[in-house]
Amino acid sequence: MIGRLRGTLLHKAPPWLMVEVGGVGYELEAPMSTVYDLPDLGREVILFTHYAVKEDSVALYGFLTERERRLFRDVQKVTGIGAKIALAILSGVTVDDFARLVATSDVTALTRIPGIGKKTAERIVVELRDRASELGGPGGPVVKGQPIPADPQSESVIALQQLGYRPAEAAKMVKDAFEIGDSAEAIIRKALKAALRT
User: Fold this and answer.
1) Which of 32, 98, 131, 178 has the smallest C-beta neighbourhood within 10 Å, fewest atoms?
2) Phi, psi dihedral angles at 17 (to 5 degrees)
3) Dihedral angle, C-alpha 80, 99, 35, 151, nearest 10 °
4) Residue 48 pLDDT > 90
């Protein structure tokens, strides 16, 4: 079981990361909530991890905070939700916002997260509402940074597609959100916030 990694951030192509620890490069998948706050490439990063073994695959997921990892695990206890939707949830809303949406039974807002339809949103509310205040658990440390990719618009479109948006939809979201000087993380954050408001 791999629960935590401390090493050098070598590569970042949302949602994929590579962290070198003792000469070994670990590939991880991470939600945008983690990608937003990663340090620059070549800097040290500490990630809480979730190691998942299935019949046909092995995957490692990385999170900057223990709260994100706990929510990632909590939502997968809901019938029909797997790692992909759990990552989409963390990419679309903060832990606190998700807990609020569940506590207030805001099915409409939950369905704006890629991969969550009305029935899934209703299941989330029914199965998690009684413990909404516990979702994510207590706060944890966050490592800050401002990485600037070479082509933030293209990177943002790809990242949004990997979160479940259709190519044309992702391109329009990026076009609407982009301002000169924005990093990919800033574009994606604004695009996802705008999507939740519509």
Assistant:
1) 131
2) -130, 155
3) 80
4) yes
Residue 147 maps to a domain: no
In tens, the pLDDT along 59-114 reads 999 999 998 999 999 999 998 899 999 998 988 888 888 888 888 888 998 988 88
> Is the sign of the CA dihedral 159, 165, 54, 95 positive or negative?
positive
Token pair for residue 98? 């998700």
Longest dimension (CA), the chain: 47
Domain holding 179, by residue range, is: 152-197
If you average pLDDT over every residue of the chain, what do you get? 84
The total number of structural domains that make up the chain: 3
**Ramachandran quadrant class, 47 (left: phi over 0; alpha: psi -120 to 50; beta: rest):** beta
Q: What is the CATH number of the domain that holds 125?
A: 1.10.150.20
Cα separation, 119 vs 81, whole angstroms:
11
